[in-house]
Design brief:
With 800 residues, the chain is an alpha+beta fold. It is built from 16 helices and 38 strands. Among the domains are: 56 residues, no CATH class; 66 residues, Nucleic acid-binding proteins (OB fold (Dihydrolipoamide Acetyltransferase, E2P)); 73 residues, OB fold (Dihydrolipoamide Acetyltransferase, E2P), CATH 2.40.50.700; 54 residues, no CATH class. A hairpin with a 7-residue loop joins strand 4 and strand 5. The two termini are 30 Å apart.
């Protein structure tokens, strides 16, 4: 189609969209929308050009300067960077001498200087030729008064280590003392003329000694703002405190069902509730009821525009930056006990093998009976006599839920779902924002049970709309790329493991079997982390590509509209598709691609903020332990040293210069071997270390290696060509998201914020914290009450 468009435009000269539509017979609304999407994509790739009159033509010819590409520049704090041209392709590497003046997030033009070599596993290299658009518009930092440049009040140094240049601030009427954390608007960027930014003061965020200012500075530097605009707050205030009789019209009345919420003890936004019962045919009915946020946040409103801009709530150590004002999230959209609340529900009939037999999706009204905590439910499940007596009314429901959860978990495992349930840390801070402990979160049956039910609802809704062939937003996790999976396979063989299948053909079952085989081994968590890093990153898309990690053919996000915009959009589509028109379908089809792209970006920003704050707070916590010794586990081995992880998930670097002799790095086995002694360091190995440095500003932690009897001494067996392991101790606790791929940075632990739950013990309480090891059709009619009914079995998907 693109080829035909180019040929027509070249032949006919500048043309209008109407002329294109007539020529390609795009008469219907759907066909015209599809044509607009193609033209838009071609324009963004610069294969077509819009002139001032709005006509479409071939782009003007540029001066010859070789083959170039357009992409997004991602900076590294060490000066080099990468350019993403296409999400489906590998990034281009840009050396520090070829970066020019590009900064993080810039849209750049690059020229290829070296092609990729698949055989050697090397990436293509490029050089930045031009910068089309700067991403950085604002910056935050401590003002440093400076007289070196008299026309400026001083400069700030961004906390973002990817922006090393100073940002000079123009003088303003406001008297500044040098204690202020300020936010500025960027006016000028580094160039050949000067190697610094120039900015204008926008706001004073706070002062350097204010409690919690360190976290606020990180958030503000990423444009994650706590305060809502006045028009947004005004709309939130106008929302009533309780639904009216008029609001209930057309909703399925579920107020008589035994419905309750299960959340963390400190949760205030209770956005999901459940009910369950055994049906006469032996199947189980599970109702998942989600706060109907879309009823109050209407499309195009100030609330909606702000929610889309934020994309997601951001959870950091001592605060939450919500997507919606608290009046909604903690008020009428919170499913508090014994009050009527508007919801959207997925009511599913599930057989004894975990298969979806039938379902109903639509608008409902509920009245929850109990506000349960994970702690209470776990106590009931564990047989606590007092709790079971106290909550005997819901005891049969809880027991039935446990049975259903085990069935669903077994079903997911059977179809190839991968379990990335690794240790997650919670940083405890005091009123001043100072970290006082780092503890491991514990996930009991109750937590995993609710997760199972939310997964089931998300799959049900996604399958429903996929089968109706309507425009929809999916949560996708594509199959891993063969080259990354091959690295994992090579890595696993270093531990003497046999992997059945090749990188291009290995099944999810084979990966499951491999991870089950190493369960309990000292290196199990490290292998789990390495497998996770070989996966692609989950994202939102208008196209359904399934969810590889969950082994799901259909998946979306439906269950958290208070804190995720895609869920809010899904709720809006559930309502609108109940009274479907061709115009409405075309509208969603045009809107979804950009929303999927922007919300995926906002999600990545939130994860990055959470990681930065955690790294900062972990380093701050460890400052009081400088000079002390600890037992840790080698989490990764790189050319420049060893990353060592402590049982509380704090990770630091032993630089190669702090090792007692010269060490050679073996890229194939990912080991360091001493030149004189032959001592080998490898991942999963127990090691004794001393804390040398903990830098709160950078989040970096440095360790010193201490020879001791916990070392793993390995000698090379030259005749067999294999390593003989004499001793391995300790386990590594790596922090990784269950749903999405996470990265690792120098001296930092990168993890996604966890769901709420019980705490384990941290470093201050001892180094023996243990984690819970237990792993284990669409409706074609619109119901009168606003729901959509249908039946159909669920297909199992095997990885090929």
């Amino acid at each position: 189609m693109k080829k035909n468009i180019l040929e027509y435009v070249e032949l006919a000269g500048p043309v209008t969209m109407d002329q294109l539509a007539d020529h390609f017979e795009a008469g219907s609304s759907k066909e015209f929308t599809e044509l607009v999407k193609i033209i838009s994509k071609m324009e963004s790739k610069e294969s077509l050009h819009f002139d001032k009159s709005g006509k479409i033509s071939l782009p003007p010819k540029k001066k010859k300067k070789g083959f170039t590409l357009k992409g997004i520049f991602r900076a590294h704090k060490n000066g080099f960077g990468f350019v993403t041209v296409d999400e489906e392709e590998d990034d281009l590497f840009v050396g520090r001498n070829d970066v020019g003046h590009a900064i993080e997030g810039d849209t750049v033009e690059v020229a290829i200087t070296k092609v990729a070599d698949r055989m050697k596993g090397t990436a293509a290299e490029a050089k930045v030729i031009d910068i089309f658009e700067h991403s950085l518009k604002t910056a935050v930092g401590l003002l440093v008064l400076d007289e070196e440049k008299p026309k400026y009040a001083g400069y700030i140094k961004s906390k973002n280590q990817k922006i090393p240049q100073r940002i000079y601030v123009k003088k303003s009427p406001l008297v500044l003392t040098g204690t202020e954390i300020i936010k500025v608007d960027i006016d000028q960027y580094p160039s050949k003329k000067h190697d610094y930014f120039v900015a204008t003061l926008r706001d004073v965020v706070g002062h350097k000694d204010d409690a919690g200012i360190d976290v606020l500075e990180v958030l503000e530097s990423m444009d994650i703002v706590s305060e809502f605009p006045e028009d947004v707050l005004a709309e939130a205030e106008a929302v009533p405190d309780a639904p009216s009789d008029k609001d209930l019209i057309g909703r399925l009345d579920l107020r008589q069902e035994l419905t309750f919420t299960i959340d963390g003890a400190d949760a205030k936004d209770l956005d999901d509730a459940v009910h369950i019962k055994r049906l006469s045919n032996g199947n189980t009915e599970l109702g998942v009821h989600i706060a109907d946020v879309s009823y109050y946040v209407t499309e195009g409103s100030a609330l909606d525009r702000e929610a889309l801009n934020r994309g997601t709530s951001v959870y950091v150590t001592d605060r939450v930056v919500p997507m919606l004002p608290e009046r909604l999230s903690n008020g009428i959209c919170s499913l508090n006990p014994n009050v009527e609340r508007l919801t959207q529900s997925a009511i599913m009939e599930i057989d004894n093998k975990g298969r979806l037999v039938s379902h109903w999706i639509g608008q409902t009204v509920i009245k929850t009976t109990f506000r349960m905590t994970y702690s209470d439910v776990n106590d009931i499940i564990a047989g606590d006599a007092e709790k079971r007596e106290q909550l005997k009314e819901i005891l049969p429901s809880v027991e039935l839920m446990v049975d259903l959860h085990e069935t669903l978990e077994a079903m997911r495992t059977a179809r190839g779902a991968l379990n990335f349930d690794t240790s997650e840390a919670k940083i405890i801070v005091n009123k001043e924002g100072m970290p006082v402990d780092i503890v491991l979160r514990q996930r009991g049956v109750a937590e995993r049970m609710i997760e199972s039910f939310m997964l089931a609802a998300n799959e049900c809704v996604a399958e429903h709309f996929a089968k109706l062939d309507l425009p929809f937003i999916y949560r996708i996790h594509e199959e891993p790329k063969a080259e990354k999976l091959q690295k994992f396979i090579d890595y696993a063989t270093n531990f003497g493991l046999t992997v059945y299948g090749t990188a291009a053909s290995i099944s999810q079952e084979a990966l499951q079997e491999l991870m089950a085989k190493v369960a309990g081994e000292p290196y199990a968590d490290v292998l789990n982390m390495m497998l996770l890093r070989s996966m692609q990153q989950a994202r939102y898309s208008e196209h359904n590509h399934g969810h590889y990690g969950l082994g799901a053919e259909f998946y979306t996000h439906f269950t958290s509209p208070i804190r995720r915009y895609p869920d809010l959009l899904v709720h809006r589509m559930v309502r609108e598709y109940g009274r479907l028109t061709e115009e409405k379908a075309a509208h969603f089809e045009a809107e979804i691609p950009e929303i999927a792209k922007s919300t995926s970006s906002r999600e990545r920003r939130a994860i990055e903020a959470e990681r930065e704050v955690k790294a900062m707070k972990k380093a701050e916590f460890m400052q009081e332990f400088v000079g002390q010794e600890f037992d840790g586990v080698i989490a990764s081995v790189v050319k420049f040293g060893l990353f060592v992880e402590l049982p509380n998930t704090v990770e630091g670097l032993i630089h190669i210069t702090n090792l007692p002799e010269y060490y050679h790095y073996n890229e194939r086995t990912m080991t360091l071997q001493g030149e004189k002694t032959g001592t080998v360091f490898r991942v999963g190995q127990a090691i004794r270390i001393k804390l040398l440095r903990a830098d709160k500003m950078t989040g970096e932690i440095d360790f010193e290696y201490l020879p001791s009897d916990v070392d793993v001494i390995e000698k090379r067996d030259k005749s067999a060509g294999r390593d003989r392991k004499l001793d391995r101790k300790n386990k590594s606790h790596s922090n990784r998201s269950r749903d999405d791929r996470s990265g690792r940075g120098k001296g930092k632990v990168h993890e996604k914020s966890a769901s709420k739950g019980k705490h384990g013990s941290g470093l201050a309480a001892g180094e023996k914290a243990k984690k819970d090891k237990k792993k284990k059709p669409f409706y074609k009619e619109v119901a009168k009450k606003g729901g959509q009914n249908g039946k159909g079995g669920r297909k199992r998907r095997r990885a090929k």
